[in-house]
Amino acid sequence: MDQKYIESTLELTDFIQDSPSCYHVVANAAAMLEDAGAIRLDEKNTFSLEAGNCYFVTRNGSALIAFRMPQDPATGYSIVSAHTDSPSFKLKENPEIRNGGTYTTLNVEAYGGMLMAPWFDRPLSIAGRAFVKENDGSISQRLVNFDRDLCQIVNLCIHQNREANKGYEYKVQKDMLPIISLGSEHTVRELVAEALEIDEENLLDTELFLYNRTAPSIWGVDQEFFSSPKIDDLQCAFCALKAFIDCEDSSSSRIQMIALFDNEEVGSSTKQGADSDFLRQVVHRIGCALDWDFDKRCSIQASSFMLSADNGHSMHPNYQEKCDPTNKPLINGGVLIKYAGNQKYTTDAYSASYLKGILKDADVPYQLFFNNSNVTGGSTLGNISTSQFSIPTVDIGAAQLAMHSPYETAGTKDTLNLVEGMKAFFKA
Ligand code: ZN
Question: Structure pTM?
Fold first, then answer.
């Protein structure tokens, strides 16, 4: 495998390992943007913008929009969207279940629709955010990551469930509660307060998720595969960030933008999700800062284009009947362009033609995804965000395997393929 592909994969997996929750994703994305000279805006303050500068704004600490103002009068937006969240288990308040002073387990609920079986028998930890009462009475957000093997969802042995290999319906409240200690009196609240070096009484509330501690791996005869937690959708989120930052010398007259939304895995209908007014507001505020009237804003919107970037499925060799019979994506096959007759994917013949032309000119490989007509596919960001801000959109991603497992698999070449494809889109 060419070293450039290994390096781009390692860059991605480092980002994923540093980003065990959506709040860490946004904090790390913000740090990358600030390193690249982007200016942080606050939604609570007026936007004041200058040509040639790059800006970003966050919402809820879990969604982020970054954009670059062109030197010349803007002619439209070129937007890449992706999502920051991944399916996991979320801790409830007072999570400790003491089991009569024996093992302490944690009370969790499902966040998103995950494959449950692969969550068993892996080292897990806990990450998310806490809100803390500061000395001056204000409330601040702190990131929480224990960053050590802390708990585990443990299987029942085969001897006590001889039917285990004949299919099993997992119930979260029964089967998925991780063990965290053998009779320890400590609470998660105490551990969070200790990790943040605050008095427990100043810990106001938390949003904490389990995450898989298994290290990412590059594997296969030719190192063609890599596996990692959260490939969906941090591969696309990271590639969007990389491509956006790498375009700083671009002379495009378009406003280049990335929109990283939260809550895709639970339907996007939150204030920080793709179904919110976040993107629409930022776009309109840019228009206000540039003194565009309504007519001008509409003409700019009509000249805009979006890539909704969220991974899709590779053909699986053991389950080929699940794949479309004439369009069989494989990992390392390049940018995946996703279509669906029910319009769950936004791609249409016009938007696909626009993107295919860009990718061909840039020598970036691409392949096509359709659901098998007997298989109900997932949904994603594109058709939801276009209901808020309606522009021609293509659904893209990388092909991957084991989507929504805590350890997913994708192709070593595709991170670079996506970055190059997105860069070509931004520069078009
Ligand atoms: Zn996704």
Answer: 0.97
Question: What's the 15 CA to ligand 1 centre distance in angstroms?
Answer: 17
Measured in Å, residue 267 CA sits from the centre of ligand 1 at 11
Tell me the CATH number for domain 88-212: 2.30.250.10
Q: How far, in Å, from the CA of 100 to the mean position of ligand 1?
A: 40
Report CA(80)–ligand 1 centroid distance (Å).
14
Structure confidence at residue 381 (pLDDT): 87
The 10s digit of each residue's pLDDT in 351-365 is: 999 999 999 999 999
Predicted local distance difference test score (pLDDT) of residue 180: 98
Ligand 1 centroid, distance to 348 Cα (angstroms): 20
Average pLDDT value over all residues in the chain = 96
Quick count: other Cβ atoms within 10 Å of Cβ 201? 8
Distance 282 CA to ligand 1 centre (A): 23
DSSP 14-32: HHHHT-SSHHHHHHHHHHH
Q: What is the mean pLDDT of residues 298-322?
A: 97
Q: CATH number of the domain at 3-86+229-427, please?
A: 3.40.630.10
The percentage of residues in the chain with a pLDDT greater than 90, rounded to a whole number, is 94
Distance CA 24, CA 29 (A): 8
Q: What residue ranges do the domains of the chain occupy?
A: 3-86+229-427, 88-212
Q: Which residues are placed with Cβ below 5 angstroms of ligand 1, an ion?
A: 232-233, 310
Distance in Å, CA 234 to ligand 1 centroid: 8
Categorize the per-residue pLDDT at 386 as very low, low, confident or very high, splitting at 50, 70 and 90: confident
